[in-house]
Amino acid sequence: MKITAIESLQWAEYPRLMVVRVHTDDGLIGLGETVDKIPGAKGALHGTVAPLTLGQDPLDIEGLWRFVMDNIMYHGYAGAELRALSALEVALWDLLGKKYGAPLYRLLGGRTRTRIPTYNTCIGTPAVPDYAAWHDDAGALAHSLLDDGIAALKIWPFDRFSEASFGQYISPAEVEEGLRPVRQIRDAVGDRMAIGIECHFRWNRVSIERIARALEPYNILFLEDVLPAVYADEIKLVGQRTTIPIIGSELLMTRWQLREWMEKHVAPILMTDPVWNGGIAETRKIASMAEAFGLPLVLHNVAGPICHAACLHLAAHIPNLYFVESVRAFYKTYFPVLGDLRVAVQDGHLSLPEGPGLGVSLNPSALERPDLIRHVSEGDGLAAGRRAMGDHWAVETIR
Question: Distance (Å, rounded) from C-alpha 103 to C-alpha 364?
């Protein structure tokens, strides 16, 4: 088997997403995906990753990943190139499952659980306005989520106050206003709803510590990305000054960037994203490293149905799972438009998709939409059969 074409799909209505299809000479097609900063990821996919992988055996996932990583590390890997490689790597695992007729979690070594704990990140769409709801009446939103079987949520009520001072100062009045949706949830449903607070790395330490002190009476599930992930020592100090667990960070790519956090014991909970961090295998390696340090893992999941399915398979497999993030506003609106994955939450848990590979297919109608933007790289590529380290200058010599 060999890779004959690598295809990117975008839809103007969903500009944050890029779906990748990997085509093979025996007719199998694997699905992958990445999210955000799509122009760069698309350029990296077709300009850098595809020439290295066309003509290669798609079942050699580890060998292909290492070959591409060796090439992209020459100029710094943790941006567009890695997101492109992540999407491609997810598609290769989907292909592997389709080749052998097995769901991804079986290929990884089987399950440690059959139900996946989740929290809802309260992003909104016009049809499911969860973002507007927690600004208007977070208590009513909590009731709505509980009615849908969701028992944990994440909001970011302090972000808007960071802009005036560039995150250098938050006033007592602003802290009080930021607490308003938290109080509404507790008043409406008590502790039946777990509350996570996203901080989007917008604050300095003195400001985030003021926020944390104010939140402590409300039994907060976690504080996420309290400072930019590069400030490992400062983040550790925040954790030492609050009783609320700190989570970070989907902004750290691959096991190498997360290693420092583990060695320094920066945070008691780690987070990573399989369509950014390098892919399925890289997520499993990160989880194994975290397990050795006694750390649970959250899977960041704010993309489309392919990422969602990948997270569920990984979550079923890895023993040290904390939560899988999910977005009700996404899986109730555009997931059914693009694919056949149907998402439901029961008692705070997601169920596992079955079927070969990821267990999700694109709807034929999605491939006929007038807003579809399709780009295809095909042919023999520049490096068929190569596994040696080297930058593009080395690959050029085999044209």
Answer: 22
pLDDT of residue 385: 72
Q: What is the pLDDT of residue 383?
A: 83
Helix, strand or coil, per DSSP, at residue 287: helix
pLDDT in tens, 337-363: 999 999 999 999 999 998 999 999 999
pTM higher than the cut 0.90? yes
E-strand stretches of the chain: 3-11, 14-24, 29-35, 115-121, 152-155, 194-198, 222-224, 246-248, 269-272, 297-299, 321-326, 345-346, 349-351, 372-378
Residues 6+ away with beta carbon under 8 Å from 237: 205
Q: Where are the domains of the chain?
A: 3-100+369-396, 105-351
Q: What is the pLDDT of residue 154?
A: 98
The residues near 275 (Cβ < 8 Å, ≥ 6 apart) are: 32, 33, 34, 35, 83, 86, 87, 90, 303, 306, 307, 310
Task: Give me the pLDDT at residue 399, please.
Answer: 41
Neighbours of 114 (CB within 10 A): 10
26 within 8 A of 10, measured Cβ to Cβ:
no
Question: Which residue's structure tokens are 């074409």?
Answer: 5
CA 166 – CA 82 distance, rounded (Å):
29
Classify 127 as helix, strand or coil: coil
The tens digit of pLDDT for each residue in 40-53 reads: 999 999 999 999 99
User: Under DSSP, is residue 269 helix (H, G, I), strand (E, B) or coil?
Assistant: strand
CA dist 266 and 295 (Å) reads 11
For 338, half-sphere exposure in the C-beta direction (CA atoms, 13 angstrom radius) is 26
What architecture is domain 3-100+369-396?
2-Layer Sandwich (3.30)
| Total Cβ atoms within 10 A of residue 30 | 26
> How far is the C-alpha of 305 from the C-alpha of 336, rounded, in Å?
9
Beta bridge partners of 31: 21
CATH of domain 105-351: 3.20.20.120
| 261-316 pLDDT per residue, tens | 999 999 999 999 999 999 999 999 999 999 999 999 999 999 999 999 999 999 99
Give backbone dihedrals phi and psi of 386, rounded to 5 degrees, phi first: -80, 140
Query: What percentage of the chain exceeds 70 in pLDDT?
Result: 97
Q: Tokens 């330490």 correspond to what residue? A: 205
77-88 exposure pattern, b = at least 16 Cβ within 10 A, e = fewer: bbbbbbbbbbbb
